[in-house]
Amino acid sequence: MRNPLAIDLFCGLGGWTSGLLAESYNVVGFDIEQHVYGEHRYTAQLVVQDVLTLHGSQFKDATLIVASPPCQEFSYMAMPWKRAKQIANALRGEGEFPDGYTGSRTVAELTRLFDACFRIQREASEAAGHHIPMVVENVRGAEAWLGKAAWHYGSFYLWGDVPALMPPTVRAQKFNPDGTSHGQGSWFAVADSKNWGSKNSGGSWFAIGSPGQKVTGQNPVMALAAVQSSDGETGRKGFAARLGESPNARFGSKSNARKMASAMIAKIPEALSRHIAYTYHD
């Protein structure tokens, strides 16, 4: 018997995919780039393509579609910071964007990736001649812009065809790359990296921080710089070696350090992904 097909949109390192593979699905993941960070990489068939360019008709044979669109903007605007509130108000037409702001300028732009998921599902279902279920994961901060989630599994909030029966969620939440947890609704919580030895004294992954932050640049991903490489190098050289980067690689928004941190935090708990996979298995 042919294994059912699942489509994983914005697949990252494959949090959804791990559970789908465990439940005997064939999985095809789509992402705008390939995520490879040392031994961490996507484990199923990967298509490097912008999800916005996909047409759902190509997924007419799918049994299930899952998706985890990036949530950084939703998370940031959920923070109790003046700049975060200013951005949210400006998107609602209630003020001006702060100087230097380069993010979404309209609500339609803010939600375009989320909306694309449901467009793809609709096109896939029309091509198949029957409804193809889809579950989309994001953060609590997205509810202000996307509407109330159908369910949440700890800090993993779910929209779409969420099963009526879901597993217990008491301890389920996103984690920082070093294993420390952070509160619901945000990718930007501060963690004292217990393994990598660099304490963040406050704020976000951005240059600006929370009220009271005295130092910028001490962001969570900077803690990764203390990782030791296989040849004994520590600090920036050690981390660069682990990721195959130049020792002088910057830890900016496009660095492997930042991307790895985001991808690790975003991984779906296997208990959740397996439950969804099992529910919709042919």
Fold and architecture overview:
This protein is α/β, with parallel strands linked by helices and 282 residues long. The protein has a domain at 5-73 and 103-169 and 268-280: Vaccinia Virus protein VP39 (Rossmann fold). It is 28% helix and 13% strand. The chain contains 9 helices and 9 strands. A 7-stranded mixed sheet has the order 5-2-1-6-7-9-8, sandwiched between helices. A two-stranded antiparallel ribbon has the order 3-4. β3 (36-37) and β4 (40-41) form a beta hairpin. α1 (15-22) packs across α9 (270-280). The longest helix has 17 residues, at 112-128. It is globular and about 60 Å long. Mean pLDDT is 77; it is low at 182-230 and 234-251.
Write a brief caption for the model.
With 282 residues, this protein is of the alpha/beta class. It has nine helices and nine strands. A seven-stranded mixed beta sheet has the order 5-2-1-6-7-9-8, sandwiched between helices. It has a two-stranded antiparallel ribbon with strand order 3-4.
Key descriptive features of the protein:
alpha/beta, single chain, 9 strands, 9 helices, globular, 282 residues, 7-stranded mixed sheet, Rossmann fold, two-stranded antiparallel ribbon
How is the secondary structure organized here?
Blueprint: E1 5-9, H1 15-22, E2 26-31, E3 36-37, E4 40-41, E5 45-48, E6 64-67, H2 72-77, H3 82-91, H4 107-110, H5 112-128, E7 134-138, H6 143-146, E8 151-153, E9 156-160, H7 235-243, H8 256-266, H9 270-280
Parallel strand pairs: 1-2, 1-6, 2-5, 6-7
Antiparallel strand pairs: 3-4, 7-9, 8-9
